[in-house]
Amino acid sequence: MHLRHVRTLMSIAALALTVAGCGGGDDDNDGGSTGPSTSSAIDVRDNSYSPSATTVPVGTTVTWTWRGQAAHDVTFSSTEHSEVRTSGTYQRQFTTAGTFDYHCTIHGSAMSGRVTVQ
After folding, report:
1. Among residues 89, 106, 109, 117, which one has the least CA distance to residue 18?
2. Are 73 and 82 in contact (CB under 8 A)?
3. 3-state class (DSSP) for residue 116
4. Closest-CA residue to 59 (of 96, 89, 90)
5. pTM
6. pLDDT tens, residue by residue, 76-116
7. Which residue of 31, 67, 77, 85 has the lowest C-beta tally within 10 Å?
8. What would the DSSP string read from start to end of 39-94?
9. What's the pLDDT at 17?
10. Nearest-CA neighbor of 85 among 99, 103, 71?
11. Region 5-20: what's the mean pLDDT?
């Protein structure tokens, strides 16, 4: 095998290990509807928030509950954020209308969500 082929194979193997190390899919697809969510409960799974977008009324407290094994956080563009953790809950009360985007600082935009408050 040429050195170039060995390097290519090693790069592919390293990429595969990196992707696998980000967790697996905690794929608890409950077969729910495809319509918009109005839930105030959000699961923090391995590499996703479920639901990833929800709409709630002003004054609602939203609770994120860690259900996976990988470490994640919930970080808004404001100064509000959770700790990086693998279990537990984080709550935020939304007292004004608006759109509030959040993400995991470990996984960036690949793991993001939105709370719309009306």
Report:
1. 106
2. yes
3. strand
4. 96
5. 0.70
6. 987 899 999 999 999 999 999 999 999 999 999 999 999 99
7. 31
8. -SEEEEETTEEESSEEEE-TTPEEEEEE-SSS-B--EESSS-BPPPBSSSEEEEE-
9. 34
10. 71
11. 39
